[in-house]
Amino acid sequence: HRHLLGIEGLQPQDILMLLDRAEAAVEISRQVEKKKSVLRGRTQINLFFEASTRTQSSFEIAGKRLGADVMNMSVSSSSVKKGETLIDTAATLNAMHPDIIVVRHHAAGAVHLLAQKVGCSVINAGDGAHEHPTQALLDALTIRRHKGKIARLTVTICGDILHSRVARSNIILLNALGARVKVVAPATLLPSGIEQMGVEVCRDMRQGLDGADIVMMLRLQRERMSGAFIPSVREYFRYYGLDREKLSAAKPDALVMHPGPMNRGVEIDPEIADGPQSLIREQVEMGVAVRMAVLEALAAHLPTR
Ligand code: CP
User: Fold this and answer.
1) d(CA 255, CA 242)
2) Residue 55: CB within 6 Å of ligand 1?
């Protein structure tokens, strides 16, 4: 593959290859000397049209650990503010001969479109409510390191499924590797036809968490909602917020994940977020390793002259 635009289209062996590469990158990242030269002489541009803490910084660190020259394009001070389109922006950057562009955009499909217009490799760092493939890969890596496998685990994804590219990418990946996936959300936060993605739909947290090995909480994306569809925080936490009482419905050794950024007291009780079952900080560490793995895998397809 020249690009990584989504989990959709990847074969299970592609996913496993990336997870295995990422395991090696975890070891490199824990060493004092972290630098490799796989991407020496290569240029990586991070082009983020939406806010990010984890994804952008980990792509920058990952590129630098592999020896690339990494440029973070500041969209808020770019000519996008003067009305330049996505495609013109991409063509402008393409003229500078980057090797890899990492893109986050608020519109689903924008990254696919951009990939057709540039001559380099493109990585999707999140496009609207469509896909966030490196998030699903880092989640899978985190799960596999704790549970030793993905197949036959029960993974329950809870919360704002409707607006979540993280949920979509995770559902595709977890199904590809043979997990059982359950989703829990109020009806207004479930996309229509979600059952066709191969998930069991639950409206109630206890029912959804029953038998769960992994509980994945999602942020309530209030900025993407309007008017009457914005639930009250107190009401939402009462029915869908993960607290100790609701978590007791999952398996006793269940582990809790959240892609971040989290809203404490909205979708998750701080006691759970910071508790012994939480993998949230480890997910961040795995984020760097997975992004190193993806960059390294794409490097094999970069032109050599
Ligand atoms: N999980 C995630 O994508 O976080 P950021 O928005 O901070 O990159």
Assistant:
1) 12
2) yes
Q: What is the pLDDT of residues 230-286, one digit of tens each?
A: 778 899 999 999 999 999 999 999 999 999 999 999 999 999 999 999 999 999 999
Q: Which atom of ligand 1 is nearest to the CA of 125?
A: 3
Where are the extended beta strands (E) located within the chain?
A: 43-48, 69-73, 100-105, 121-127, 154-158, 180-184, 200-202, 214-217, 255-257
Q: Which two tokens stand for residue 7?
A: 């989990």
Cα 55 to ligand 1 centroid, rounded to whole Å? 5
> Beta partners for 181?
155
Give the amino acid at 143: I
Residue 304 has pLDDT above 70, yes or no: no
pTM of the model: 0.97
Give SS3 for 101.
strand
Q: Are 180 and 207 in contact (CB under 8 A)?
A: no
Rounded to whole angstroms, the Cα distance separating 146 from 260 reads 19
Q: Does residue 52's CB lie within 6 angstroms of at least one atom of ligand 1?
A: yes
* Residue 212: partners with Cβ closer than 8 Å, 6 or more residues away: 154, 155, 156, 182, 249, 250, 251, 254
